[in-house]
Amino acid sequence: MKFTRFVGPIAAAFVAGAVLLGGDARADATNHCSWTSAGSVLTVVPDAGWHLNTDYKWSLTVGGTTVPKSSFSTFSESSIVIPATPGTGTLKGGVCSNDGNSCASITPSVSISK
User: Fold this and answer.
1) Is 23 a domain residue?
2) Rg of the Cα trace of the chain?
3) What does the alpha-carbon distance between residue 107 and residue 65 come to, in Å, rounded to a whole number?
4) Sheet containing 41-46: which strands, arranged edge to edge?
5) Is 104 among the domain residues?
6) Are strands 109-112 and 59-62 parallel, antiparallel or unpaired?
7) Percent residues over pLDDT 70 in the chain
8) What is the CATH number of the domain that holds 90?
9) How crowded is residue 106: how many other Cβ atoms within 10 Å of its Cβ?
10) List of residues 6+ apart from 91 with CB closer than 8 A
11) Residue 63 gets which letter from DSSP?
């Protein structure tokens, strides 16, 4: 009985949060793409059902240096390849669902390896 009194308010708060975020518990789109790093290159690919928004002002900032999308070696809706200095930084970009119903910006922290 005490357990249900505790869980009820938590569940209600979660549902309210999901409604305020447009019915989806995600506050950003980081789950709609993935990235890997090898050889001082960051590669970004969209998840199934999503594409990378090429109209968005993409950039990668590592150690105070910003790499604009004009310097990306590959830039398309299906993949982005960014040569970068090794270190930790912030990727800025946008993704959209293939059905056109949802777009979101992303700003994940990424690590670039040598």
Assistant:
1) no
2) 18
3) 16
4) 33-38, 41-46, 80-83, 74-75
5) yes
6) unpaired
7) 73
8) 2.60.40
9) 22
10) 35, 42, 44, 58, 59, 60, 106, 107, 108, 110
11) T
Mean pLDDT of 79-104: 94
* Distance spanning both ends of the chain, measured CA to CA: 55
Sign of the C-alpha dihedral computed for residues 100, 102, 103 and 109 taken in this order: negative
Domains: count for the chain: 1
Q: What pLDDT sits at residue 93? A: 94
Count of positions (residues) in the chain: 114
Q: Which of 45, 34, 55 lies closest to 103 in space, CA to CA?
A: 55
- Token pair belonging to 57: 């002002």
| pLDDT (tens digit per residue) in 25-81 | 223 445 699 999 999 999 999 999 999 999 999 999 999 999 999 999 999 999 999
Joined together, the tokens standing for residue 49 give: 């059902």
Alpha helices in 1-114 (DSSP H): 2-20
Which residue segment(s) compose the domain that 37 sits in? 28-112
What is the pLDDT at residue 30? 54
Residue type, 55: D
